[in-house]
Amino acid sequence: MMPKIKICGLKYPANIREVAVFEPDFMGFIFYPQSPRYVGPGFVMPADVPAKTARVGVFVNQQPETILQVASAHKLTHIQLHGYESPDDCYILYKHGYSLIKAFGVDAAFNFDVLKPYLDVTDYFLFDTRSKQYGGSGRAFNWTVLEKYTWNKPFFLSGGLSPALLKANGLPRHPCLFALDVNSGVEDEPGLKNTTQIQNFIHIVKNLLVHL
Question: Residue 133: how many CB atoms within 10 A of its CB?
């Protein structure tokens, strides 16, 4: 089955509309002020984002009450937590009916046992490259570490994804791989996506699956 595709870090309304033409499964909007892809306080979600495309709000170490206010204002369907949020924080959001994605920075020494407290309060995990920032490193981690992931919960794969990376490395074969989360690998500058690169990315994913 083809992994879902999430285009993350969208920022500009006209560009959002251009990307929406491809009807990605998920579109991600960053509500973290320190990110260069922060949508800004005056952000208005374009009305023509396809109904079939899930709207993901990305948050970092923000209070659940604040997140809920933003999620309601922008009619988000999914909340992605990319900081050090606790299982209790996740539960508060989860019980309000939002699909919850909890991100973790992964490296060769990552211990997947730390995910256990989050199993019952999330819908998905997201595995990004471990860095000093909260994501956005533009680098891929060694996917062989995913062989140690044995929990039965679907995950998003992030971290340096691009058309060139997929051409060179293919896709990891893991039964819980649910979606590919691409950001800097398909953009001209932070927040401005290149539609040709997005088209190439989607084409490569489809082609890879044909040859599996």
Answer: 14
Per the residue annotation, which of 89, 90, 128, 181 is the catalytic one?
128
Which regions of 107-209 does DSSP assign to beta strands (E)? 124-129, 155-157, 177-182, 187-189, 192-193
Q: What is the pTM of this model?
A: 0.94
Active site residue 8: yes
Output the pLDDT for position 135: 57
Q: Are 80 and 101 in contact (CB under 8 A)?
A: yes
pLDDT at 132 over 80: no
Task: For residue 103, list its beta bridge partners.
Answer: 126
Q: How far apart are CA 99 and CA 96, in angstroms?
A: 9
Fold of 4-210: TIM Barrel (3.20.20)
176 in catalytic set:
no
Q: Of 8, 89, 90, 181, which one is the catalytic site residue? A: 8
